[in-house]
Queue: 2 jobs
Job 1
Amino acid sequence: MNNIILHRVAIHLTWRCTLRCEKCGAYIPEIYAKGLAFDYDYEEIKHSLLTLFEMVDMIEVITLTGGEAILHKNIIDLCKFLLEYQDKFKRIDFQTNGTILFSDSLLNVMAKSDKFTFFIDHYGPDISTKVEQNVELCKEWCVNYMVRKYYGEDAHMNGWIDWSPRKEKISKDAAQKQFMLCANGRLDQRPFVIYGNLLTLCAMPFCRYQIGAQPFEDILTLNLADNQMGIEEKRQRLLEMRDTNFNPGCQYCCGIGVDPNVKRYKAGEQVKRI
Ligand SMILES: C[S@@+](CC[C@H](N)C(=O)[O-])C[C@H]1O[C@@H](n2cnc3c(N)ncnc32)[C@H](O)[C@@H]1O
Ligand code: SF4
């Protein structure tokens, strides 16, 4: 075996969401304004995962995210599919914004493995209105859950940070330094993200590309569905991405975690819907 262990792989299932958070890291309000809110195709996601499972030995954490992952048309089928590959991951973190009541069928599949946990982000009682009910349901169904309270004095992480794209592209040198200081640049913790067929390193470059704030060619990508590439070639590309000291997307980013004293904002503030 190659003994390739990835720390974290997120699956960005959908650009649809029940909320329109002003500082959303996935730029959901802009996505809606541009008419780009869609779900990734389920067959495409499954194929990407099967390819990745063939390439690596273990993924420590798979995160289901978006947008609001529960809205994905095939979310229950996807959880059932993941249950069949439990030897390939240690944990599934299911992120949700506390606005949708968990269905019996979703709870039923989540209860089937101790590796599954709901991360319920609580943006305040007027926004995340289903948190308490969902907590009760999780207890009833013996499903793991964690509530991250993002409001009030003791807000999780003291609130959100501003992930707006940089107004001006910075130099390769400056971006390289920023990447090495960034929370997403830590060598042993590089976060990969799947968008349909594409595997990228760090979520931000692709999110910026979606809203037209950076070019596609400056995103590190691997097309998992590329029939011209064999599995070994794909594995080499993955390792290149994992070990790189330069992510060209950083040239458009302010850096996540570069400054521990960076200004924090109230999480989940809603913008007017268009
Ligand atoms: C883009 S959201 C998608 C999942 C789900 N809709 C939610 O809000 O929980 C993924 C994670 O990023 C966090 N997040 C979003 N925007 C952020 C920001 N500007 N700063 C810090 N965290 C942010 C959310 O709280 C959530 O935990
Ligand atoms: S709930 Fe807010 S943070 Fe989460 S994806 Fe939707 S708009 Fe973004």
Note: Residues 5-252 form a domain with the TIM Barrel fold (CATH 3.20.20.70).
Job 2
Amino acid sequence: MARAAGPRGPKRARLAVLAAIALAAAAALSQSAGSTAAILSGSPRAVGPSRAGAGSIRISSTMEPADHATALAASDASGPSGATGQTGASGPTGPTSPTPPARYRVVGCRSHGDVAYLHGPDRREVAIGFDDGPAPDTPAFVGMLERSRAHATFFMIGDQVTRAYRATMLRELRDGDVLGDHTFTHPYLTSSPDVRGQLEDTIRAIHGLTGYTPCVFRPPYGAYDSSIIATARSLGLATVLWNVDPSDYTQPGTATIEQRVLEQVQAGSIVISHDGGGPRGQTLAAYPKIIAALRARGYRIVTIPELLGFRPVYNPCIRLCDGIGVPRSAVPRDAIIERAP
Ligand SMILES: [Zn+2]
């Protein structure tokens, strides 16, 4: 396999060094009843998915979540352990058997922050959110994004997340699009008696169909307060608004939608548009031109989690790949890899 050679060498060496340092330090600390957390909380990206030393990694309950995930990533890379349950059985220095490479699938993302995000950092990046789906036009939006080689964030109404859209949602995930929470019934949350239920039921609907847990939430009508942000945060959701709004839902015409977005957009912008809530042909027709024009200005089109620095979460998968499993080499570099539940 082409991916077996080059890049693994340095990582293997680094891992071995890190493991040696960690073990030595842990041994020293164990005499003084110290915590190993500080020792093991080095840069999560330093420890790559290498086969080397995987058997020597031990998960400490005092490790930070990111380190925990990284250590698991190292052990997960030792092969499709779920198939045999024999991870590490050949010993820490044993030869690698010719097992097929493990595959990984996206299962969510990890957000942070106790604010409502209106935009991202001042970089040449723009994120587009499509709200109020899944809906009859959603598959056409996914196709448009595929042809444009762009990714978007779909804020979904939980009540509409039905089995009929499962294939479309999995296609979105396979493409690298992001699924977000847009409440279950699209109420004004500031006067809703059950904010938590609105968010939780939608998470459950999306997860139930796709195995994906959203980490971003957009309040309908942009109506939110600090208590809604806190409730969302407690469910792992960042509250995401926008700073570019072409009011595409009023169907002002394709050219007007395009013109409004391009007039308002700036570095780090978050754009709101709609793939549901009515016929969205105008929006659909506008975006290939919008995306091309933004790229001509030097902007990258990214998802909202990517814009805000929220990392995707991947699990190794065997029978639960849902057709969206990818080899380790195709997992994004910034991904958190966790063991499947
Ligand atoms: Zn909406």
Note: The two ends are 29 Å apart (CA to CA).
